[in-house]
């Protein structure tokens, strides 16, 4: 095959174009720090990076759910702790007032503190996390209890629902994080209210007042069990958070290895391509210096 000057020039220009393209790719990698800029540059790596990004997004959502769950459970535990202290104090007053040597006036003085304890327990049951009432089930915009002054035997009415609030903590775990006011506080509020009414009634004996102690002991035990249950859930959420944080570090490392350029290697390749490109230009300049007679042969 005859090789003409025009063929040599055309080949030289093609090689220069390819060399310039390689040089541009390496410049983009160096300036961006990424191995690819467009999906067409490395389809498989792009697909892997999208998969890692999707996993990281799910991981981040699970961590947000866990933070919400921990805040909810911590608020619940704090309310249960405060509720336990109220019931324990009410129990102490009940023991004190059960003494038949006390006069009706003495018991009315105790009744004042008992009334404050009852109201405080109602206030604790209406605990909120942000704008959400935590003891109203899924009806979080409504206070769990409404005071009913017209009915002395039923001081409060539960206005929430019995549906549980849950959070998805990872691919395989969905946790119920809620307790309803009906199961936690209703009986305790009514019991303290009953004792308050008895203390206000001069005809009630100390034995009748003391008969409430067994219910109060049951309430204290119930609150201890509920706090233990909440504590176990908090322990589990802490363990899951640790695993998710470790998994996030692992996924970010994989994503970085898949798409981040090795700058030292890119610089080395860039210098090599610059040398090749300069050599191509030098070679091309010699070809372009041929005479017009050489081109028309």
UniProtKB/TrEMBL annotation:
**Membrane-spanning intervals of the chain:** none
- Localization in the cell: Bacterial flagellum
Which cellular components does GO assign to this protein? bacterial-type flagellum hook
Q: Does the keyword Transit peptide apply?
A: no
UniProt keywords (A-Z) are: Bacterial flagellum, Cell projection, Cilium, Flagellum
Q: Which residue range or ranges hold the Flagellin N-terminal domain?
A: 5-140
Which GO biological process categories is it annotated with?
bacterial-type flagellum-dependent cell motility
The molecular function terms of the Gene Ontology recorded here are: structural molecule activity
Q: Which Pfam families does the UniProt entry name for this protein?
A: Flagellin_C (PF00700), Flagellin_N (PF00669)
Output the Gene3D superfamilies linked to this UniProt entry.
Answer: f41 fragment of flagellin, N-terminal domain
Q: What is its main location?
A: other
Task: Give the Flagellin C-terminal domain ranges.
Answer: 215-295
The keyword Kinase appears for this protein: no
Q: Which NCBIfam families match?
A: flagell_flgL (TIGR02550)
Q: Which PANTHER family match?
A: FLAGELLAR HOOK-ASSOCIATED PROTEIN 3, FLAGELLIN
User: Hey, which family's this protein in?
Assistant: Belongs to the bacterial flagellin family.
Report the protein name in the record. Flagellar hook-associated protein 3 FlgL
What species is given as this protein's source? Halanaerobium saccharolyticum
Q: Which classification does the entry list for the species?
A: Bacteria, Bacillati, Bacillota, Clostridia, Halanaerobiales
């Amino acid at each position: 095959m005859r090789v003409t000057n025009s063929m040599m020039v055309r080949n030289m220009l093609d090689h220069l174009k390819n060399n310039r393209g390689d040089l541009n790719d390496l410049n983009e990698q160096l300036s961006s720090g990424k191995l690819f800029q467009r999906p067409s540059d490395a389809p498989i790596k792009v697909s892997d990076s999208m998969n890692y990004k999707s996993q990281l997004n799910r991981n981040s959502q699970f961590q947000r759910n866990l933070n919400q769950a921990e805040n909810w459970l911590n608020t619940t535990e704090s309310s249960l702790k405060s509720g336990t202290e109220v019931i324990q104090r009410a129990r102490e007053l009940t023991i004190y007032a059960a003494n038949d040597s006390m006069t009706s006036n003495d018991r009315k003085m105790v009744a004042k503190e008992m009334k404050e304890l009852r109201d405080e327990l109602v206030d604790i049951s209406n605990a909120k996390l942000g704008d959400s009432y935590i003891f109203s089930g899924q009806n979080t915009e409504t206070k769990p209890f409404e005071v009913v002054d017209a009915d002395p035997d039923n001081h409060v009415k539960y206005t929430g629902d019995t549906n549980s609030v849950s959070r998805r903590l990872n691919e395989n775990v969905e946790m119920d994080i809620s307790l309803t006011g009906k199961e936690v506080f209703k009986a305790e509020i009514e019991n303290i209210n009953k004792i308050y009414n008895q203390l206000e009634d001069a005809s009630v004996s100390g034995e009748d007042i003391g008969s409430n102690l067994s219910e109060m002991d049951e309430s204290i035990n119930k609150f201890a069990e509920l706090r233990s249950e909440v504590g176990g859930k908090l322990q589990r959420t802490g363990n899951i958070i640790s695993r998710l944080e470790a998994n996030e570090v692992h996924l970010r490392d994989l994503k970085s290895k898949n798409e981040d350029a090795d700058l030292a290697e890119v610089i080395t390749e860039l210098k090599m391509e610059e040398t090749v490109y300069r050599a191509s230009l030098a070679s091309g300049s010699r070809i372009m210096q041929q005479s017009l007679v050489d081109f028309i042969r």
